[in-house]
Specification:
Order of helices and strands: EEHHHHEHEEE
Structural class: alpha+beta
Number of domains: 2
Number of strands: 6
Helix content: 25-40%
Largest sheet: 6 strands, mixed
Shape: elongated
Strand content: 15-25%
Radius of gyration: 16 Å
Length: about 140
């Protein structure tokens, strides 16, 4: 089974992070750090009722009507490049020696990203794309 990994972004405070589908369903400290709430349903309410947040989303995405705002503006599947950048950044923040830095995913080793389906390769410390995910 492939776990979806999402890019989350709060344009009001310019905070960005990634989150797994599992974390989204059960509540997450990452959601709280980015949006100030632990659950995705609360982010939906923010998009409806939090005026400064709505206005920041409209400015960031050049929307002229608040009816065009959707959850996808602040939460979408992450690309492989974005995920790699954020995972390396997280690893660097928690590690002082760059020479022996080992990057391990803190989520499923089989993931669905914006670019497709991937398996974690322990030897290369990276995700390798799966050509046909239906066989798994």
């Amino acid at each position: 089974m492939f776990e979806k990994i999402y890019f989350i972004h709060n344009p009001l405070n310019a905070t960005k992070d990634w989150i797994s589908e599992r974390e989204m369903k059960i509540g997450s400290l990452k959601l709280k750090n980015v949006f100030g709430v632990s659950f995705l349903d609360d982010v939906r309410f923010m998009l409806q009722f939090n005026t400064p947040f709505k206005e920041s989303v409209m400015r960031a995405y050049k929307l002229t009507n608040e009816k065009n705002i959707s959850l996808q503006h602040v939460c979408r599947l992450i690309s492989k490049a974005e995920l790699k950048e954020m995972v390396v950044k997280d690893a660097m923040e928690n590690h002082h020696e760059e020479d022996d830095l080992i990057i391990c995913p803190s989520f499923s080793t089989s993931v669905e990203l914006k670019d497709g389906y991937f398996f974690w390769n322990k030897e290369t410390n990276s995700y390798d794309e799966v050509n046909d995910h239906r066989q798994f």
